[in-house]
């Protein structure tokens, strides 16, 4: 009886972490030293009538700025505003200390369409580094700007960009009378274009992206009992995939998208299971009197890591995804939980206790070295960006649930502030077919 009380107290604590908002404001709280100077000149408009509803150059500049790796020039400081390479006087930009320059134009391209052209230059060499003509529409202008920012980021850093990806998160607005409106939302990585996936008066938690970025798995208490649903992001169609007696929690997709690892207590205490979505079959991976929860797959699908208190305190363990011997992964500190793999499988991000505070860390799996990245009192729910360069997580600021992000080297920090409500449990989407590297 005492053990079951402990289990439900744990889940009750997790439920209290579920909260909401409507729009995000991104603030760079700490950028990398030596950020690369770059000028993104306002794009020209060659069509008739009023300018476009979206400022493509501004979106690109904002993306590069919030990465923390670039210092973009204010438009007011520009001596000229060229729209193509043949209009560029490189000496003007050298005088201003710019190392790279982005220019571009937008013109009509058929009914309801546009053609966006951009060019990226090395100012000191006077050479073009990249440039494309990208067809788009009014609706997709922001996505096109993010795509251009990704191309520029990769060209100048050697690392794939993640501006054209999305984030999912759980929000909650507390209404008069003590009632809460909880929602699962999806937004662009910069917080724009939020889309509500599902709303409820009961807790929603543990969102997880499918590998193709088309579906979300999550836990819902909408009928008083925790159940796991899989929902298509674009159509809204959903299916209840797990509703066993007791706990149904922490869904995690396999890399091939055919299975979910999850936490079930149907056979006693919480253990890790794998659900084959096509065959509707369950495979039990752990059998222990401790609490086993929060599974996450390795990128190659061979292993599942999870949180367990089987050693007395929450630590990270690993089990083969086909079943086998459990191995402990973390030893430093008295509390390590909520782990997930980096895209390259070489490290894991987790919540680690530092004194009285709960911080976000990254553990190098080869060396065993743990680097603490965040500085909050109650930081949780870390999730790698699909390029492995940043980790997004939930934190508390002045008692309010907000999102933050930090680079894996700890040098760049962002705060994603909400205009309304609280937000928890962020998870970064994978790359999809739309996140193509080149047009």
TrEMBL record:
Signal sequence coordinates: 1-23
Record flagged with keyword Signal: yes
Pfam family, one: PD40
Gene Ontology process terms (BP): cell division; protein import
Localization in the cell: Periplasm
Keyword match Plastid: no
InterPro entries with a match to the protein in the record: 6-blade_b-propeller_TolB-like, Tol-Pal_TolB, TolB_N, WD40
Domain TolB N-terminal: 24-129
Coiled-coil residue spans: none
Keywords: Cell cycle, Cell division, Periplasm, Signal
Similarity remark: Belongs to the TolB family.
Function statement: Part of the Tol-Pal system, which plays a role in outer membrane invagination during cell division and is important for maintaining outer membrane integrity.
Subunit structure: The Tol-Pal system is composed of five core proteins: the inner membrane proteins TolA, TolQ and TolR, the periplasmic protein TolB and the outer membrane protein Pal. They form a network linking the inner and outer membranes and the peptidoglycan layer.
Name of the protein described by the UniProt record: Tol-Pal system protein TolB
């Amino acid at each position: 009886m005492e053990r079951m009380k402990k289990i439900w107290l744990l889940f009750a604590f997790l439920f209290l972490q579920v909260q909401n908002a409507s729009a995000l404001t991104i603030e760079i709280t700490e950028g990398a030293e030596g950020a690369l100077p770059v000028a993104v000149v306002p794009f020209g408009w060659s069509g008739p009538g009023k300018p476009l509803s979206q400022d493509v150059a501004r979106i690109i500049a904002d993306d590069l700025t919030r990465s923390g790796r670039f210092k973009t020039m204010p438009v007011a400081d520009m001596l000229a505003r060229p729209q193509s390479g043949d209009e560029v006087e490189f000496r003007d930009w050298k005088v201003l200390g710019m190392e790279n320059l982005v220019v571009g134009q937008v013109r009509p391209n058929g009914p309801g369409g546009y053609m966006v052209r951009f060019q990226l230059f090395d100012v000191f060499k006077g050479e073009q580094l990249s440039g494309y003509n990208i067809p788009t529409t009014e609706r997709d202008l922001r996505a096109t700007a993010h795509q251009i920012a990704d191309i520029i980021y990769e060209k100048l850093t050697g690392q794939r960009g993640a501006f054209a990806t999305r984030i999912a998160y759980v929000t909650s607005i507390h209404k008069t009378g003590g009632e809460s409106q909880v929602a699962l939302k999806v937004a662009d990585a910069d917080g724009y274009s939020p889309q509500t996936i599902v709303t409820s008066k009961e807790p929603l938690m543990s969102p997880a992206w499918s590998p193709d970025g088309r579906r979300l798995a999550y836990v819902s208490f909408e009928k008083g009992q925790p159940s796991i649903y899989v929902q298509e992001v674009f159509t809204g169609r959903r299916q209840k995939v797990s509703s066993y007696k007791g706990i149904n929690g922490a869904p995690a997709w396999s890399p091939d998208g055919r299975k979910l690892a999850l936490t079930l207590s149907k056979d006693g205490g919480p253990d890790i299971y794998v659900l084959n979505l096509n065959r509707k079959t369950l495979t039990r991976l752990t059998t222990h009197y401790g609490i086993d929860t929060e599974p996450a797959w390795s990128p190659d699908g061979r292993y599942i890591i999870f949180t367990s208190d089987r050693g007395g305190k929450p630590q990270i363990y690993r089990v083969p995804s086909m079943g086998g011997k459990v191995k402990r992964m973390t030893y430093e500190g008295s509390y390590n939980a909520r782990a997930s793999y980096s895209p390259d499988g070489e490290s894991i991000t987790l919540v680690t206790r530092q004194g009285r505070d709960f911080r976000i860390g990254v553990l190098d799996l080869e060396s065993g070295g743990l680097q603490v990245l965040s500085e909050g009192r109650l930081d949780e729910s870390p999730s790698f960006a699909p390029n492995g360069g940043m980790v997004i997580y939930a934190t508390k600021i002045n008692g309010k649930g907000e999102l933050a992000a930090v680079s894996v080297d700890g040098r760049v920090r962002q705060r994603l502030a909400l205009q309304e409500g609280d937000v928890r449990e962020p998870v970064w989407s994978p790359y999809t077919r739309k996140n193509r590297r080149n047009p």
